[in-house]
Fold each of these.
Amino acid sequence: MSAKVENVVIVGTGCAGLTAAIYTARANLQPLVLEGILPGGQLTTTSEVENFPGFPEGIDGFQLMQNLRQQAEKFGTRYESGSVTGLDVAQWPYTLKLADREIRAKTVIVATGASPRLTGIPGEKELYGGKGVTTCATCDGAFYRQMDVAVIGGGDSAAEEALFLTRFASKVYLVHRRDTLRASKIMADRATSHPKIQPVWDSVPVSIDGVAEGAVSGLRVRHVKTGAESVLPVKGIFVAIGHVPNTAPFTAAVDTDEQGYFVTTAHSQVKTRTPGVYVAGDCADHHYRQAITAAGMGCQAAIEAERWLAEKGG
Ligand code: NAP
């Protein structure tokens, strides 16, 4: 193990992690940011971000994350790639365990975000990736020009994915298990009034056809009220049914709730029961889950880390 002890290690490079980096770097703490498998986090898979304050024309999600990264770097943030497998808080400074190394840190800010949830229906795993099942319209939508596709889900993500896919697909089925969308009114109205989007209400996905051929050829759905099953003749299936928090490597150091989200102490969104360990963003928030709220939590975590280090004598 290296003898070096970091002031602050930030795990994750989404809005929460990079905002924490900007603040701790400006506090002259020279933070080390660990980048995982999706640098930039979920916003890099979003197209236009219309609700981040300060961008009246909207901003491309990837561009926003590039901007945050550069802003943090300008003040002295260092980046390393590596996925954390564990956090040992038995002794201070704490030890972050990675596959190939260990890093010692006085404070840790965990901002690992959340990953897309999958349905678990037969055919999904077999056809995931380049075979027709995906969780990212921005990444894969262009492969489905002039084809029929289905989006599963009823939240803002599902509405956004469906709308994005209308640029390419001939028809977009929006398969939702209830008869009203959970999405915000503006997104729901845009989606349901779009001529290319056909809502499939009160329907749950049952299985995906095409496993033998190695490519999606249909989505079997069941109407929850009548029990009737039918097959939507689609070539692409976009799963948008929410997310699972990426908290598993940290459960020995930080409490989690029954859904796996980090639990913080009373009166704080970011403090955990372990002094010097803070959490921020979607890994600790299943209520708001916005880019701006994640950034806000990153800011809070950075200020807490800075104050705690100052109290400890740096
Ligand atoms: P979400 O709001 O949790 O919605 C998940 C959707 O998937 C719900 O409609 C849910 O149905 C459905 N669902 C969950 N499990 C399912 C299953 N096993 N089978 C079938 N359907 C299932 O997740 P999200 O859409 O990813 O949004 C997450 C957060 O990000 C939200 O706060 C959202 O507002 C925000 N967001 C905002 C924007 C934007 O403002 N532009 C864009 C994307 C996301 P029920 O409705 O029946 O529960």
Amino acid sequence: MNTVPKEFQINNVINHNEYLIDGEICKWNGKQTQVFSTLLCDSDDKEPLLIGNTPEMSGDYALKALESAHSAFNYGQGVWPTMKVYERIKCMESFVIKMMTKREEIVKLLMWEIGKNLNDSRKEFDRTVDYINDTILEYKRIDRKGATFQNKSGVRALIRRGPLGVVLCLGPYNYPLNETFALLIPAIIMGNTTIFKPAKHGVLLIAPLLDAFNDSFPPGVVNIVFGRGREIATPIMKSGKIDVLALIGHSSSAISLQDLHPQKNRLRLVLGLEAKNPGIILKDADIDSTVKECISGTLSFNGQRCTALKILYVHEDIKEEFLSKFTKAVDELKLGLPWENTLLTPLPETSKPKYISDLIDNAIELGAKILNKNGGKKQKNFVFPAVLYPVTNDMNVYKEEQFGPVIPVISFKEITTPIKDMSESNYGQQVSIFGKDVDTLGPIIDSMVNLVCRVNLNSACQRGPDIYPFTGRKDSAVATLSVHDALRSFSIRTFVASKDNELNRNILRDMIDSKKSHFIRTDYYL
Ligand code: G3H
């Protein structure tokens, strides 16, 4: 621990033994999962460090959490789904204030548990707080829009958005706070009730928020359980009582979870899945700025982002210049501990270094070369990024989403080469296209917008800003997330309609004046 600055040290193993079900933070006395950090195990003689324990809860407890969420929703009759929008917003405002007090604790755990550097860990926290505040504002806007009666063909209608029911929320390890909350928060505020199980890494950092959740929302609205994905999610899905599966992860997990649900038409899906976003470098690209964007695109957080550039296509005419500058820039990158704020940091998954090395070996066997001097150098918790060229479609690094530090490169003469690969790919999230000539770019953009859901011009792929839509085609996503779209994804339009006659007009007037309904009202919140 000598190398760890005092403020980031973890001096004792964190024994987290609590979970939240039905408005009660309960003690867990059963089996526990050990939480290890790979940060300090840079050589074979150093083992990952035990930094904590979390409950390894069983399927029975998963079902208790389900029961709690189910009775809090109570077929839409529960306190939360029928509560005034204004009151739900108040609960969320109270939550975010409490959450903000946990910033330093959570940032420290983000570094230890997933190896994210300090600046990015702080960014993840702050971005999440902004996301919650923006969600509140957006919900007020949506509610205002629903505060007016429409009258068409003699039918008067008040149209709003209502909750869907019980949401099972499963987030990813690379953004264990931000991406999970980008599902959980809109689901909660729209009046759904939730069961949330943290990702396989980034679990301890959820513990400091249990009180905030419990103090801010009525019992059963947020249930937080810990354990293995299969053990927890399987009985919950099999029950048929889940209305929305909200998951950021792998498409194979999403498919097996959906398959467990006995009434598939009842199940809504909000999924952010894998991607293989290409960076396409045309012959007139500005090389220096393209190199910069491709470095951050391929290697921010060691390439462990669903939006990372996972394959580069370089035009033959500029291949030499681009690759020489790019490989030099890769070799200059520093690997460090998160508080040193280097771009490269240790990988949290103990199996990842071997997986990345295997991808490199497989590519070499099939004819690729490592172009950069440091590429492929291995230590126990890391593999230095290898720029692999020429990559062909029989290599695993071409076929698989590497989600780590290795950069496959293909050269092309005609733009039809990357476009054909994108058309045949199982994924369709984003692309980055680097070039200047409008005559060339125009038709390429026109094709690509129909293959992916965001075309980044001379810029790396990314999710943010969070007000923009984040989605994908094919196996990359189901439903759209953004501050606004997420509120839509976790709700459904529902309305009250009446024949426009004296009787109904009087009833509606009376209802509005007497404030007897939380749904039929024409006031709104500022
Ligand atoms: O892992 C996928 C994330 O949504 C990527 O988000 O582009 O902001 O890093 P980001």
